[in-house]
Amino acid sequence: MKRLGVLLSGRGSNFQAIARNVAQGRIEAEIGVVISNRPEAPGLALARELGLTAVAIPSRGLDRESYDRLLLEELAKHNVDLICLAGYMRLLSATFVRAYPLRILNIHPSLLPAFPGLDAQHQAVSHGVKFSGCTVHFVDEQLDAGPIILQAVVPVLDADTPDTLSARILAEEHRIYSEAVSIVLAGKFRLDGRRIVTS
């Protein structure tokens, strides 16, 4: 069975959605390890409650390359096939990304390539866009720029604040992230230039 490695920095709500779908058999995989750069992350406590292997590797004081070497060692120890970033608030080094080509997924709360980086929901509201949403993509060496696997569209209402928009986007994140994980694990995609074509 394929093994997932989940990286998180906070509450891990997308991790929770993935774990629920694994437990219910909707994702044919097991979670091999959950790793956080913040020992106090609520997502780590949740992983332990679920009986999963949860590891804290504090990042404070380490440069990106040194930290990512520790991460790679831990992931290898648990024979991870696919890495899911679930609110992981660090940029990955090129060394890390090259170790897992087309095997690192991220979810971002906008319709990429619009509004990459932090505060995407705030950017959407302040720009007055009429639609936003979320994007599951492969991670490459650029920020929020890897090939797109799935997207979901959410209307932006005139009364929306970043918080109300975030809540509606999050519901879609929980749905499409697990879908994307299943597509990738089953190999039901091919890369055509920058485009991911699913089958």
Q: Describe the main β-sheet briefly.
A: 7 strands, mixed
Which CATH class of the largest domain applies here?
A: Alpha Beta
Quaternary structure annotation: single chain
Q: Care to count the β-strands?
A: 9
The H-and-E topology, N to C, reads as EHEHEHEHEHEEHEE
| Beta-strand proportion | 15-25%
Which strand order spans the largest sheet, edge to edge or round the barrel? 3-2-1-4-5-6-7
CATH superfamily of the largest domain: Formyl transferase, N-terminal domain
CATH architecture group name of the largest domain: 3-Layer(aba) Sandwich
Radius of gyration: 16 Å
Count of all domains? 2
Verbal overview:
With about 200 residues, the protein is of the alpha/beta class. The chain has two domains: about 1-100, Formyl transferase, N-terminal domain (Rossmann fold, 3-Layer(aba) Sandwich); about 105-199, Rossmann fold (3-Layer(aba) Sandwich), CATH 3.40.50.170. Helix content is about 35%, strand content about 25%. It has six helices and nine strands; from the N terminus they run βαβαβαβαβαββαββ. The chain has helices at about 15-25, 40-50, 65-75, 95-100, 120-125, 160-185; strands spanning about 5-10, 30-35, 55, 80-85, 105-110, 130-140, 150-155, 190, 195-199. The strands form two sheets. It has a seven-stranded mixed sheet. The chain has a two-stranded antiparallel sheet with strand order 8-9. Strand 8 (about 190) and strand 9 (about 195-199) form a beta hairpin. Helix 5 (about 120-125) packs across helix 6. The two termini are about 20 Å apart. The mean pLDDT is about 95.
